[in-house]
Amino acid sequence: MKSSSKQCIKIIPVAVTNSKEESLGKASLQTLKTYFSMKSQIVILFAFVILSACNGPTKSGIFKQPTLADYQVGEKWVWKYKGITTEGEVRSDGKDTREIVSVNGVLGMTIGNDTIPVTDIVKPDESKTPKYDWPLEVGKKWKYENNWKSQDGTTGSQNQDAEILSYREETVEAGTFMAYTIKYTGKTTNSRGYNSNEEEVWLYSPEVKNFIKLTQTQGDFFYVEELIEYSKPE
Predict the structure, then answer these.
(1) Three-state SS across 154-207?
(2) Which residues are CB-neighbours of 191 under 8 A, at least 6 positions away?
(3) What are phi and psi of 118, to 5 degrees?
(4) What is d(CA 20, CA 32) in angstroms, rounded to the nearest whole number?
(5) In a domain, 212, yes or no
(6) Cα separation of 31 and 180, whole Å?
(7) Is residue 201 included in any domain, yes or no?
(8) Residue 38 lies in a domain
(9) Are 132 and 104 in contact (CB under 8 A)?
(10) Residues 6+ apart with CB under 8 A from 149
(11) Which end of the chain is more exposed for a tag (fewer CB within 10 A), N or C?
């Protein structure tokens, strides 16, 4: 598996935390509110289902979910992100970092101001409509559903059809990695009347146990997030 990555500092998208919805803003103010509510959901959802390099493919090329042993203290991911409307208005622009740390001997991943135990990240998702349907394999299809509630009391839902399109070399600023292309198409609605079709394409690399690029179109908003640095102790 070929890769080239910068040995770096640290940082991944928008102000990631439970108010960022992983950093995707949206066109109008209403769209923006929806985006941040969902971004927080994506941050948490993604944290619970990251890909594994050590838990490599079987002979058929299928990748299983990672285990605790696949992570080590000091491992770090840095992304840059930008969200812009069709009229050229920038709604989000910045960097985000995740890093593996040890807290009282327990491994955790920092996401914004939060630290999530790695044991929670690698815990199998028992949902019938998960964000990621393990094991990953080209051609696989499933339904993804997510219901959420923002801090201001707004409730919403995300319903998408997911499909793994390919597994091949993909190049981003951090380097070249083998990655799955997973496409999600569907709709996002909320209790304030927001209703929008959306399309997301995630490039997930088992080698870095994380996504290396995300592109999202939702209404009149376009969002891109790309891995710019990945490092781990030698």
Answers:
(1) CEEEEEEEEEEEEEEEEEECCEEEEEEEEEEEEEEEECCCCEEEEEEEEEEECC
(2) 154, 155, 156
(3) -65, -30
(4) 10
(5) yes
(6) 28
(7) yes
(8) yes
(9) no
(10) 37, 155, 156
(11) C
Q: Residue 158 sits in a domain of what CATH number?
A: 2.40.360
Residue 111: which H helix or E strand, with range? strand 106-111
Q: Is there a domain that residue 133 lies in?
A: yes
Provide the pairing of β-strand 76-85 with 221-231: antiparallel
Extract the tokens encoding 152: 């201001």
- Number of structural domains the chain divides into: 1
Rounded Cα–Cα distance for residues 70 and 74 (Å): 13
Domain range enclosing 187: 29-231
| Tens of each residue's pLDDT in the chain, 234 residues | 444 433 333 333 333 333 333 333 333 444 444 444 444 444 444 444 443 334 444 434 688 989 999 999 999 999 999 999 999 999 999 999 999 999 999 999 999 889 999 999 999 888 999 988 999 999 999 999 999 898 899 999 999 999 999 999 999 999 999 999 999 999 999 999 999 999 999 999 999 999 999 999 999 999 999 999 999 998
> Contact, 231 vs 3, CB < 8 A?
no
Strand-pair partners of 103: 106
